[in-house]
Amino acid sequence: MRFLYACFVIVLCALIFCEYVADFVVLQKCKWPEIKRKKYVDDPLRAMILADPHLLGPHRGHWLDKLYREWHMTRAFQAASRLFQPDVVFVLGDLFDEGDMVSDKQFQEYVWRYLKMFHLPPGIPLISVAGNHDVGFHYKMHPFFMSRFESYLNNSSVNLYTIKQIHFVVINSMAMEGDGCMFCTQAEDQLKNISRTLHCMKYPLEAECARTRRHPYSQPILLQHFPTYRISDTMCEEHDAPYIEAFRERFHVLSKDATDMLGELLKPRLAFAGHSHHFCHSVNRLGIDEYTVASFSWRNKVNPSFMLATITPDDYVVSKCKMLPQQFVYNSYLSAGILCLIVIGFQLRKCIQRRRQSSAVDHRKVN
């Protein structure tokens, strides 16, 4: 019975380590990046940025896949939020895998699961960006999908958030088609309003800005689901895509025209996006740093990651934080299984030796 007890202890230790401890061990290697310039460093904004969790819905995927991978997403996020204690968390679209395929009741359950998985302490905002799996690609966008996403997750086509004097512009990428549709026209109007608001922050003494609520001006940071225009990840200074794929405008990335419009209206200093499921750091078409954030889910990427950004009104520094790889967990359980087999084999060998010795003694007694 001792070998059964030993196997139980080995499996239990592997289970506790992989399911409750390993995320903390891996994520402790990450640190908030530090701004070296002295101005504003007393109270910088610390933002955690992730993308594409793709929570499974009722139609796709096996229930075991949903249960296990979403369990690990929950453990990873809770470990990260406890270790890093961010000021704000951004999720850059595709919160759901079937957001544009489910009924309103199923969407409510989706949102409940999502908010439970990505739960944060009071006072830390969770800002969720719309992705094509949440409200559909441009051709599929419908007021029903848009209104319920806005209703449940408090995010419209374009939003301006100001946190610690840092301005973030959050955009629905699918409304950047520029074809005059209802959603595109609404998004462009909202962009122009935000552009005027930022202008008045910069030039508060102008007559047209007299009644505008004033925050100190700093160049905004752009957050959306689609990356700005690029031909492929060959334009990345760093990337982790397993192969290079040519990108299509309005499908994989924003169009050139939409990218240029954002640059003209907002004049951002930094951009973040998701959608490709792979990490990329590039200097984009607007001449600014853009980070495409890898998927947060093992279902899309076996070595997921997210971004940590330390930001002040005049500076920023960004680092990539690697999460627990899927293969590490599989290897840990495989190692535990092999160790159990070794223990069992050792015990069986001892039992066989004892039987042989017992048989030898009995044979001598008979003789």
From TrEMBL:
SUPFAM superfamilies: Metallo-dependent phosphatases (SSF56300). GO terms for cellular component: endoplasmic reticulum-Golgi intermediate compartment; membrane. It is a multi-pass membrane protein. InterPro entries: Calcineurin-like_PHP, Metallo-depent_PP-like, MPP_MPPE1, PGAP5/Cdc1/Ted1. Its main location: membrane. Residues 46-278 form the Calcineurin-like phosphoesterase domain. One of its GO terms (molecular function) is metal ion binding. Keywords: Hydrolase, Manganese, Membrane, Metal-binding, Transmembrane, Transmembrane helix. The chain crosses the membrane at residues 328-348. Its cofactor is Mn(2+). It is found in: Membrane. GO terms for biological process: endoplasmic reticulum to Golgi vesicle-mediated transport; GPI anchor biosynthetic process. Belongs to the metallophosphoesterase superfamily. MPPE1 family. PANTHER family: METALLO PHOSPHOESTERASE RELATED, METALLOPHOSPHOESTERASE 1. This is Metallophosphoesterase 1 homolog. The gene is Dsim\GD23512.
